[in-house]
C-alpha cells in the first residue's frame, strides 16, 4: 500500500510541475522569451557587441573599427586580428577598407590611409591606390598612381606605401 501512495504522490507532483510550467509559459511569455534568449546568448558566447575604451566596436573574430566614414557610417577602416608575419618577429594587423552596406571589402589589405573630407585615400597591397568619396560612394582604384590627378598623387605620395609594419 505504501508503494502505491508513493507512486501516486510522484505522479501528482510531476503533473503539477507540467501544469505549472505550462501556466508560466502561457501567462508570462515576455519573461519566458527573455529568459530563453538570454540563455541562448549565454550558451553561444553572446551577441552583444563589445567596445574598447575609446568606444569603438570590437568583433568576436578580431575585427575592430578604426574609423568610420559617411553620414550613416557605411564605410570603415577595419582592423582584423593580429597575425604573425612569417618574415619578421613582429605581429602586424591586417586592415581593410570596408563597405558596410554591401558587406564587402573594397581593399582587403590596407597599408596606410588618409581622410580628407569627403575623400578617403588608401594605399593597399591588393589593388594599389584607392580614392573613396564616402558621400557619393564613388570608388576609383588603380595600381598606377599616374591615373589620378596631381592633387590626388600628392596625397597618395604622403602615404606610406610598400610592404611593412602598419604604423597605426
Characterization of the model:
The protein is an alpha+beta fold. The protein has two domains: 2-44; 50-158, no CATH class. It has helices at residues 2-27, 29-44, 150-158; strands at residues 50-51, 57-58, 64-69, 75-84, 91-99, 104-116, 119-124, 129-133, 138-142. The strands form two sheets. A seven-stranded antiparallel sheet has the order 3-4-5-6-7-8-9, with helices on one face. It has a two-stranded antiparallel sheet with strand order 1-2. A hairpin with a 4-residue loop joins strand 7 (119-124) and strand 8 (129-133). It is rod-shaped and about 95 Å long. 14% of the residues are buried. Residues 163-168 have low confidence and may be disordered.
Secondary structure: helix percent = 25-40%
The total of beta strands comes to: 9
Count of the domains = 2
Tally of DSSP helical segments: 3
What amount of the residues lies in strands?
Answer: 25-35%
Helix and strand sequence: HHEEEEEEEEEH
What is the first-to-last residue Cα distance? Answer: 81 Å
Global geometry: rod-shaped
Largest beta-sheet details: 7 strands, antiparallel
Structural class: alpha+beta
Low-confidence runs of at least 5 consecutive residues:
163-168
